[in-house]
């Protein structure tokens, strides 16, 4: 069953990517005023990073389940796992952006300067770059799955792009957990 018109897959993926990345960069750059989001108690804002690390770890698991399922030919299980992964990613992003806007920007690194320069920043940069690159690939792979039947998908770029998106997703989520550990556990 076709949920997305086939001729609209690329433009829709492009529009979703541009809008998503614009919102992320606007929030990270402090361009969205805190008054645009509902106020939350401090304990809720403090809890979000801990919830997000659980979401990240769960997403790593669902991506791995989806990857394994498709390699075994279990298309239905693959679809459920990848949609769950996307739902977890969306939930993570909403919570992360909410906290970012509500608190007025990214959390400062509390550790020593050498760790900041030589560990935290490189890990964060790679994490962010992979997440940025992943967005359009992910949207395109998901929209292909929505536009074509299971029998038609092998004739599209869905499998190739899905492998790329899953790999980027896995590494990005993993590095996000490292960032969390540096911000909230180690320091």
Automatic annotation (TrEMBL):
Keywords of this protein's UniProt record, alphabetized? Membrane, Transmembrane, Transmembrane helix
Signal peptide residues are none
- Record field: transmembrane: 12-32, 44-67, 79-98, 118-143, 164-183
Tagged with keyword Transmembrane: yes
One Pfam match: DUF420
Entries under InterPro entries matching the protein: DUF420 (IPR007352)
Q: What is this protein called?
A: DUF420 domain-containing protein
């Amino acid at each position: 069953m076709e949920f997305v018109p086939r001729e609209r897959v690329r433009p829709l993926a492009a529009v979703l990517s541009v809008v998503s990345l614009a919102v992320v960069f606007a929030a990270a750059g402090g361009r969205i005023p805190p008054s645009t989001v509902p106020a939350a108690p401090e304990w809720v804002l403090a809890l979000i990073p801990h919830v997000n690390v659980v979401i990240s770890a769960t997403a790593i698991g669902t991506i791995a389940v989806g990857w394994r399922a498709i390699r075994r030919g279990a298309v239905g299980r693959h679809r459920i796992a990848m949609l769950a992964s996307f739902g977890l990613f969306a939930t993570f992003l909403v919570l992360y952006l909410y906290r970012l806007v509500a608190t007025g920007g990214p959390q400062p690194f509390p550790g020593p300067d050498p760790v900041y320069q030589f560990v935290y920043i490189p890990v964060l940069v790679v994490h962010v770059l992979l997440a940025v690159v992943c967005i359009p690939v992910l949207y395109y792979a998901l929209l292909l799955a929505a536009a074509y039947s299971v029998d038609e998908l092998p004739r599209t770029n869905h499998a190739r792009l899905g492998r790329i998106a899953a790999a980027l997703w896995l590494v990005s989520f993993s590095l996000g957990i490292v960032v969390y550990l540096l911000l909230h556990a180690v320091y």
